[in-house]
Amino acid sequence: MNIRVVVVLSIVALTGSAQAQSQSQSQSQSALTAVNIVVGFSPGGGTDTYARLLGRHIGNHIPSGPKVTVQNMPGSGSLKAVQSLATPSAPGTISMVTFNYGLITESQFNPEQVRTKLTDYKWIGSLDSVPAVCFSWAANGIKTLDDLRKRTRFNIGAPAVGSSNHVNGMLLKNVARTPTHVVTGYPGSADERIAIERGELDGGCGAWSSIPPDWIGNGSIAPLVSFSTTPVAGLPPGVPFIGDVASGEHEKQLVNLLIGPSALGRPFIVSADTSAQFMAILQTGFEGAAKDPHLLQEASKMKLPINVVSGAEAERLVAALYATSAKVISDAKALVR
Question: Which CATH superfamily is domain 132-261 in?
Answer without folding.
Answer: Periplasmic binding protein-like II (3.40.190.10)
